[in-house]
């Protein structure tokens, strides 16, 4: 089973970021109505199983627009890579090869 944590509010998002410490954090900014988001979701889930040293978070931009806006998200899906609360990189769109950036950051 995967280790994707679903974010339920902005406070939880910031708490997860703080608790991650030096671990890589990969955040999937998604929406239920977004077809490409739904298509790439299984790939994101597989990565969470493969890279157990990283933290994988999922944020529904419609429910938690404040969190998405605070991170500058303007398109879905958007995947943002962080370490120590610092943004390392960003991948937009449902291209699984874009998510291979995880390898370089773990």
Would you mind describing this structure in some detail?
With 106 residues, the chain is of the alpha/beta class. The chain has four helices and five strands, in the order βαβαβαββα. It has a five-stranded mixed β-sheet, with helices on both faces. Strand 2, helix 2 and strand 3 (55-60) form a beta-alpha-beta unit. The longest helix is centred in the middle third of the chain and has 16 residues, at 35-50. The two termini are 20 Å apart. The mean pLDDT is 91.
Structure at a glance:
The protein has 106 residues and is α/β, with parallel strands linked by helices. Helices cover 36% and strands 27% of the residues. The protein has a 5-stranded mixed beta sheet, sandwiched between helices.
Could you name the key traits of this structure?
5-stranded mixed sheet, 4 helices, single chain, globular, 106 residues, 5 strands, alpha/beta, 36% helix
Question: Helix and strand layout, with pairings?
Answer:
Blueprint: E1 4-6, H1 10-20, E2 24-30, H2 35-50, E3 55-60, H3 65-70, E4 78-83, E5 86-92, H4 101-105
Parallel strand pairs: 1-3, 2-3
Antiparallel strand pairs: 2-4, 4-5
Quote the average pLDDT. Answer: 91
Low-confidence stretches: none
Order of helices and strands: EHEHEHEEH
* Number of E-type strands: 5
The multimeric state of the shown protein is single chain
**Beta-strand percentage range:** 25-35%
**N-to-C CA distance:** 20 Å
As a whole number of angstroms, the C-alpha radius of gyration is 12 Å
What's the main sheet like?
5 strands, mixed
Largest sheet: spatial strand order: 1-3-2-4-5
Q: Structural class of the helix and strand makeup? A: alpha/beta
The proportion of residues forming helix, as a percent range, comes to: 25-40%
> How many DSSP H or I helices?
4
Looking at the structure, what is the overall shape? globular
